[in-house]
Write a structure and sequence with these properties.
Layout (H helix, E strand, L loop, with lengths): L11 H26 L7 H24 L4 E3 L2 E3 L4 E2 L7 H13 L4 H32 L4 H30 L15
Antiparallel strand pairs: 1-2, 2-3
Amino acid sequence: MTTASQTSPLPPSRARAGLGFLAAALPAMAVLYMAIYFPYRRDTFPARALSAYVVWVAHLAAGVLHLFDARVSVLDNTITGPFPLTVILDCTALDAQALLAAAMFAFNGTWKQKAVGLGAGLAALMALNIARIVALYVVGLRWPDGFHLVHEEVCQFVIVAAAFILFAVWVRWVGSAGGGDDRVAGQDAHA
């Protein structure tokens, strides 16, 4: 058993690395969130691009659902069928993808490692999000009273937790590949 006097505080270099990571990740996260949730006018490129992305997510989810239920179709961002779902920007997991991207860019690693991590991580979050929408459709059909609980509490947690887990797996991979350590990008090894 150890006592408080026997445990050592976090070494100063690791504490600086953690603060440096936060100093890089938090502004990156803020910029990405602003880019996603800024109230763009409808006729601007960002608004059209985000709207097209929402429609694309709805079409992907409807395509998967149609494999199991031929009654499912899609019109713009609305999945139609016995339990219609409207996909909105908050349903696309872009916020979790932004969280993952900001963390990966702030962490030490080569650009190649970041590109591989982002490609794999964003694809995994996209696949998980499509599975989430499919699951919500099934929950809406089989347990309509539980839909809001599953949608607002369970699924939100799962998507954000998945982003953290993907980041942790990527950090471990970067460390094992010898291209990174626990320092923030650009930090001197002797700091």
